[in-house]
Design goal:
Elements: H1 3-6, H2 18-25, H3 33-42, E1 48-49, H4 59-65, E2 68-73, E3 78-83, H5 85-92
Antiparallel strand pairs: 1-3, 2-3
Amino acid sequence: MGEEAIGRSAPRYGHPPACRARAEREEMTFATHPERQFMQYLRGAGWIKARLLPPSTLVESLLRKGWIEQQRQGPTNEVYFRLTEKGLEAKKSPVPTGRAGLNAKK
């Protein structure tokens, strides 16, 4: 018996899920929890030596988003990072929960 006989339609794979489509359309302006944790080390501290920060795979992503900046300083050309204004705004912005309709007052 085919799926047509049961009354079910075949799954659609032609369209991305709504969350992925939304992420592709608009730039994410809030920081995830791991990003917020990493940026907390940089907040209000100016330039911080990279070797003093916790090991993380987030650095490239944060640099690409413009939330942190990198500079080489000193005679050994050591890497330093600092939080940018854009990063501070992303850190302060609320994380959307996707439940806006559930918490609305009637």
